[in-house]
Amino acid sequence: MEIHIIRHTKTIKEKNRIYGRFDPPLADTFYQEAMQYKQILDQNYDKVFCSPLERCKRLAEFLGFRDVIYEPSLMEYSYGDWENKRWDEINPKELQHWMENYYHVAPPNGESFLGFHERVTNFINSLQKTPYDKVLLITHQGVIRSMIVLFENLPLEKFFEISIEHGKVYSYKI
Question: Within the chain, where are the H helices?
């Protein structure tokens, strides 16, 4: 199976604010970035899967693919109750505990890093059981990093060292 993966277009983010599943507004460059994807993407995918978060949905709609499957497994990491808060608004002891143990500890009502990676891995494992030859995934930086770790058999510790660009297509054969 051939997998093409793209990241949503740029968003307007306030510095020091926690964004995972919270949807910040799209940047004014949306049209130009979306057109760039439209020009470089193949239009012949067996299936297109997309995160249901608005920043990905808007791109999928713009690209005009039919029968897009909005897949919750492609959503960004969940910071739970911390979403859209500033880092300095989080209880310092709670934040410190999470920062020291984020692999196994989740923010309140969020997910642990290992849980997040497992969610992405489970999606890829189930995708491999489908009859599709070529798929497009429209998703987020963290999800793409998780997939690269999986596809390239990297240690999970390399996750944060992987740079994910807007406007680039990440391609893998699995």
Answer: 30-40, 54-63, 92-101, 113-127, 141-151
Amino acid in position 174? I
**C-alpha–C-alpha distance, residues 173 and 103, integer Å:** 28
**DSSP annotation string for 4-43:** EEEEPPPB---TTB--SSS-PPBPTTHHHHHHHHHHHS-S
C-alpha torsion sign, points 83, 88, 93, 97: positive
Please write the tens of the pLDDT for every residue from 6-52.
Answer: 999 999 999 999 999 999 999 999 999 999 999 999 889 999 999 99
User: How far apart are the C-alpha atoms of 63 and 38, rounded to whole Å?
Assistant: 6
DSSP 86: B
pTM over 0.70: yes
